[in-house]
Predict the structure of Equilibrative nucleoside transporter 6.
Amino acid sequence: MHFVHDQISTRELEERFMAVQCSDGHGWTGSKDEAHYQNENSKSSSSEVEGADGKFAAMVVCWILGNGVLFTWSSMLRIIDYYLILFPNYHPSRVLTLVYQPFAFGTMAILAYHEAKLNTRKRNLSGYTLFFLSSMAVLILCKSSTSGKGGLGTFIGICIVSGVFGIADALAQGGMIGDISLMHPDFMQSFLAGEAASGALTSVLRLITKAIFENSKDGLRKGAIMFFAISILFELLCTVLYAFMFPKLPIVKYYRSKAASEGSKTVTADLAVVGIQATGESKQFERKGMKRLLWENKDYALDLFLIYILTLAIYPGFLSEDTGKHSLGMLVLIAMYNAWDLVGRYVPLIKSLKMESRKLITGSVCARFVLIPAFYFAAKYGTQGWMIMLTSFFEFLCHESPPTDLLNLLRSDAAGAFYLRV
């Protein structure tokens, strides 16, 4: 595959990145001196990518973008105390989740089927833009409920927005996971950690906004409005970062160019944005089908299915409606849940605690089901402290560290997130 630059960067690092393409036997329009440099130093160039300029910035951006794919949905769940007062007869904490998941799952299934032909850039931008617009819709609906009680029409509007959040999640999360899977593994770790951080961050923000307006008239509603206004600004930040900053990072350009040279068609638009055009023949690699990948990793699929089935049975409905004696206690409980979710995401970085055995991972997943009767008795007879301890342990157990062969399944724009959703 040939890479034609509209403008050759003067930065030596970017020149070395593009020179790496010659190692695959493909032509490059750079100078002979640069080609000679690559031939003599191909191994050193590859190693330089690991610590190249832009890696830390890319990890930070990935962390923020990971926040972005769940920030609005987490925000929706954080103001559940407001919804319980606004819609006391509609069980919003349970209904909103039931609306969200089918839209997310169905959209991911469709995108997974067509993933190899999709424009990843348009898809991800569409997802983050939908998050931004839907957050504005929630803000408008919250401001329209001036009487302190919401009617059926307002609740239906909130449910529609919840469904749109599911579609946006399928677009952005699936696309980002597939895109980042073609890059450095640390980017995936940062992205997934960002997803967990969205819950912890929104919990802290919700506690702050609730405290600010606690003693004011109509304070719960004002706090919810301020909270979602922050969410809108955050989604706008994610959209701008992905559209203008992320594709221009040297290390991102390198990995996308490498993916294009190996036959990926989903990165073409991303490369075109930074002045790189991929033309000609590419080096094709054997591609495993979705069914084969799922079959080879059926134990992981079962693990993730059991994780989310049990998680959705406990959170957010059970924690918010069946355990909170008052709204502040409910928010603290959910905040602890998300804090330990974030801690659990970083556990695989500690080698002594890292689980790589498939049987051990499945065993830890099944062990979570032992906590079901514990939750029941704690909610009925225990104190809030017991519930916080159970919630923390419950979420800490759900994080496993799959071996690198599982990444093969994630190397597509939709298949990875579809697999996670399954």
About this structure: The chain has 20 helices and two strands.
